[in-house]
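Retro notes - structure team

What went well: the batch runner handled both jobs without manual restarts.
What didn't: labels got mixed up in the shared folder, which is why I'm recording both outputs here explicitly, each with its sequence directly above its C-alpha cells.

Job 1
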Amino acid sequence: MASSSPVFLVGEKLIVGAVDTSFLSATSRILPGTMVCNGPAIFGLNGSVGVSRATVMIGPPMQPGVPASLEVLGIANVYGNLNVYAVSQFTGLSTKLGTVIKNALSLKNGVDVKNALNTSNAISVKNSNENIGGVLNVAGAINCTWLENRLAAAMASPPKGFDMHHPTKKGWRLTHICIEGPEAAVYYRGKLEGSNVIELPDYWRGLVDAETITVQLTPIGTYQELSYELMDWGTKIKVLNNAGSAINCSYVVFGERKDVDKIVVEYEGTIEDYPGRDQRSIVGYHYDYRPGVNG
C-alpha cells in the first residue's frame, strides 16, 4: 500500500505514520491492543474531511435518530481546555472544582448546588428553585417582576402591619398594625410619681424638633389639675399640679424628627410623581401582603 505515512505493526500495536518509538521501552505502558496514530484521525462522517480542525475528529453530526458519535462508559479525563459549541447535557452528577466562566446564556432546569464562588458575566436563566446558603452580593440592579408587584402592593396598602409568633399562646400568631400619621413622629412614654420633671432621652436633642413637642398627661388614682412646661430646649418637661396635691400620672410625649425632610402628605399623580425626597420605608411583602386584600 503506497503511502507517505506507513503503517507499522509492533507486536500487538498498530502504529499509523512516522512515530518516535522511544516510549516503547517503558514496558509498563505497553498494553495489548494499542493503536498509535500520529496525524489527524477522522472517524465517521463528521463533515470535516480535508480540514484538520483537531487531532481526532468524530462524526457523524448530531441528528435526530442517529446514534451518538462518541460514547464513554467509564471515566473521561480532560486536562486542558474543553470547548463545547453545541448542547451540553448532564443527566448525572457534575462536579466542578475550578473556576467556571459563562459568557453566554445559561439554562438550568434542575437543582443547582454551588458551594464556591460563582461569577456570571452574562444572562443566567433558571426555571427551578435555587437555594443560597451563603451571602448573596449584588453590585448592580435586580429586576424581578414578582417582587416589584409585591412591593407595589405593600406601598399601596392602606394598613402597614406585621405578623409575629404569639408570645403566650403556643401555635397562635399576633398581628399588629402600625400607627400612621402625616409626620415622622417620635414618642416617649412613662409614669411620673414623686417627681415633677420628665427626663427625655438625651438623643432627643439632635433627633426631635423641640418646637413640635406635645405632652399628654393622665392623672393616676385621683383627679389632678396637671399642666406642663418645656425646659432645657425640650430635653426636660416640668409637670405642674394646680390642685396642690402630689403628682402621680402617666405621660406620652410626641415630637417630630428634625433630621429628615417633612413628608409631602398629598400630591397629584402616581407614586413616581412624589415631589419630595423619598424617605418612605416599605416593609417586606411577608408582613403586609394579604391575598385578596392588597395583592
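Job 2
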Amino acid sequence: MRFKTILAAILFVTAAAAWPAATSKKVLVVMDEREQMEALAAYLKAEGGVESMIVDQASLPADWKPYHAVIGYIHGRLEEAAELKFIEYTRAGGRFVALHHTISSGKARNKHFFDFLGVQLLEPEKAREPSVPGGHYAWRDPVEQVIVNLRPDHYVTSHGVTWPERRRYTSSDAPSAEREYPAMLLKETEVYVNHLFTDGRAKTVLLGFRWTDDRNNQTYMQDRTGWYKREGKGWIFYFQPGHSTQEFGNRVCTRMILNAILWQPELDPR
C-alpha cells in the first residue's frame, strides 16, 4: 500500500511538472532576418515559457490556429501570401505583433497591409531624405533616440519592466503640455518618422520617441513608437524598436513584446 501511495505521489508530481509545458503559449515568427528573432525567441522561452516557431515567408504553415500570436519581422518585401495570412489570422481572432521595419517604405507596395494597420507613409520614395515633423515619411540610422513610456499604468509597458530614466516630452497629440515620462535611450538604432494614423483614435498609444535630425536640426516628438488596436476579432500590436540583435537583448524592449503576447483586454486600465 505504501508503494502505491509513493507511486501515486510521483505520478502526480510528474504530471504537475508537465502541465505548464502542455499549456504553454506558442507563437509563429515570420521573418527575413533570423539572428534577431532567435534572440527574441530565446527571451520569450526563458522569461515567459513561450515557444516560438521561426519561419521565412516561403515556409508559412497552412494552419495558424495553434498560435496564440504571430510576430512579423519583415525587412524586405512583404509577399502577398504572408500579407493576406496576417490579415486573415488577426481578423479571425489572432494577435499580430508587428516589429520595427514591418512598417516601412517597402510595404507601401502592398495592396492591403497599411489599411489593415491603419497607417500611411507619405512619399515613401523620399524615405532617405531629411524631412520635417508632419512631412514625408523618412528613416535614419544609426542614431540615438529616446523612447518614452506614455502609459506608465499599462500592463504592456509596466509589468516586469524597469525603465532606466525619465525624460521631458511633449505628446504629438496636440495641444499637449510638456511633462516627464519614464524613458530609455537607444543607441545605434534606426528611427522612423511621420507614421500617419488613418483610423482616428482606434489605436491605444503606448510609446513615443524623441529624436533630433543632425542634418537639419529638426526635432521630432511623435507618439508612434508603440501602440495596439482591435482588428476584427483580434488585435494588432506594433513596436518600433528592434533594429538589431542588440536591441532584442534590451530587457525593456523584449519584456514589452512578451507582455503584448500575454496581455488580455481586462488588463487595460481604461
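One thing worth noting from job 2: The longest strand covers residues 179-193.
We'll revisit the folder naming next retro.
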